[in-house]
């Protein structure tokens, strides 16, 4: 009896309070409805603050939930359902909506069985609903990610040996079925015979393992099509069962095809399908290492009269000729040989275990193939010829560049002998040829980097209308001093460097030497240096490691360093250029697009290519005062650059009238003999340091990194 006394109104009120339940009690005969203090508190109200009317809960119910809530009560009163159970939103005192779970039912009837009284409780389930909404958002994103990635989901129940594939998995395998359940052995029947054993082993996940196993394999669909797939597989524990193997499957056939195509493109010339220079150099190095055991013949093939054919019939005919020549060269070679297009109209061949008679036979076959090449109907009676140089490599320690240089030297001898012929390299004849060939100039360039004959020069970049001391930007140049003391202009040695794969080495020497010598002046803010990069350098994956090391050694700040890449290099090596620019901007180095307008092909790339400055090709600037066409071109480029937030530099400013026109167009920067003639870089830096000491004004940045 004492226990019954404790279970009075206070007892139940405390129970409701502790359980966070709101009680309602509706007298159907009088229409009165009682709401417990805990119900009011759940909605932010004090006891007695709300009138206990029968429709109070309805007034507080969200408009979208009212009909459903009323129908739940009406259905129960009508005897259609055993109880009231529904979820609805009630307005809190502070204006927000509280989700509640409403459960209740009839607790009293009259003698005729007519309902007299209903009671129920409402529970705040807002957090649960929010968690459900958040989970649904995650599921939506997950399903969207799966759909976007084309990934299928499958699982295999270890205990029941039942497998289930979702619709995407069935689509990938080409399986026509409406149900997820498939036979446990079905998957095995699709596996490619060459991949079957390894793939099945990769899918044998040990129970209890937490590892995710990735595998790639091929399947053969029922229509005979071979597809490449990628799967991720892991074990999932399941209470009361042996667990499941859960996996994803994705069709990567197109990715595989694309990767194979990119791998081929990385090693081959796009026009002819022959090896490119980099791939040929690697193979040549491997074959030279075996030269002591298997003598190696290296051929340098240079087409004669190709430029005349290009000028006469156009580039399309030239391309057709190159493809036909390449096909003829390949047909002339034994299976063990390799052929490459080095660039333009130059080719290289290597033939292992090839001595004099073999090399001469191949050379004559190549000469005949070039003469017989299909040049197309547009060319008429014109024919091509070739000059071929042959070098025999028997020293396994010979450098690749030296082997090609010897073959190139012999090629020059063949040209001098009248063309359409071949010549064999001999050290004696090379020594007496006067040093007038590209191979020796390339070798001399390498020596000059080491013996001090390669000189650093510079040309000032002016902010038009202002003294150079306001900007103090310099483009770094190089000059080669010949062994006879005469200066060799860049127009002579730079193409040779590119031809013999020395351009990247030359660029590195210039960058490292300039920064090491003048890093202190750059760090003091006295001068900023801009470096030209060749296409070979732009494609060098180790470039930034080298630059970072040079920065660390010299102390030069990245913000005082700029790089100039030509429009042609940027467009033809766009992926490499894009990656280079991105990494330059990460370090706050400047990037300029050089010789812009010469190709007139890269406007569309500028949207995706956030350079800091555009250098207008000098051919449009030299005669701007007398050429309306040049003025229109410069004006258009300037307008586009300004709209992108890029600075504009005009090159080859040589006349006062041209300078005034450029200033009127809004061109901000310029270079040219009118403003400054190239001089030793050391003198320019010394002048900049002296000017910086006299003036404390910070110099303007050229196209500051955005």
Q: Assign a percent range to the helix content.
A: 40-55%
| CATH architect. name of the largest domain | Alpha-Beta Barrel
- Radius of gyration equals 41 Å
Strand order of the largest sheet: 17-18-20-21-22-23-24-25
End-to-end separation: 84 Å
Give the low-confidence spans: 431-436
Please write out the topology.
Layout: H1 2-6, H2 9-19, E1 21-27, E2 33-35, H3 37-42, H4 56-60, H5 63-77, E3 84-91, E4 97-109, E5 115-124, H6 126-149, E6 151-157, E7 162-165, H7 167-173, E8 181-182, H8 186-190, H9 196-202, E9 213-220, E10 226-236, E11 244-251, H10 253-267, H11 277-288, E12 296-304, H12 306-313, H13 315-332, E13 338-343, E14 346-352, H14 356-371, E15 385-393, H15 400-416, E16 421-424, H16 427-431, H17 438-451, E17 454-463, E18 473-481, E19 487-488, H18 490-499, H19 503-523, E20 528-533, H20 535-538, H21 543-554, E21 561-566, H22 567-572, H23 574-586, E22 590-596, E23 613-616, H24 628-644, E24 647-650, H25 656-665, E25 669-670, E26 679-680, H26 681-694
Parallel strand pairs: 15-16, 18-20, 20-21, 21-22, 22-23, 23-24, 24-25
Antiparallel strand pairs: 1-2, 1-5, 3-4, 4-5, 6-7, 6-11, 7-8, 9-10, 10-11, 12-14, 12-15, 13-14, 17-18, 17-25, 17-26, 18-19
Q: How would you explain this protein's 3D organization?
A:
The chain has 706 residues and is of the alpha+beta class. It has 4 domains: 2-130, Beta-Lactamase (2-Layer Sandwich), CATH 3.30.450; 150-257, 2-Layer Sandwich (Beta-Lactamase); 273-436, Alpha-Beta Plaits, CATH 3.30.70.270; 442-694, TIM Barrel. 42% of the residues lie in helices and 24% in strands. Helix 12 (306-313) packs antiparallel against helix 13 (315-332), helix 13 runs antiparallel to helix 14 and helix 19 packs parallel to helix 21 (543-554). It is elongated and about 130 Å long.
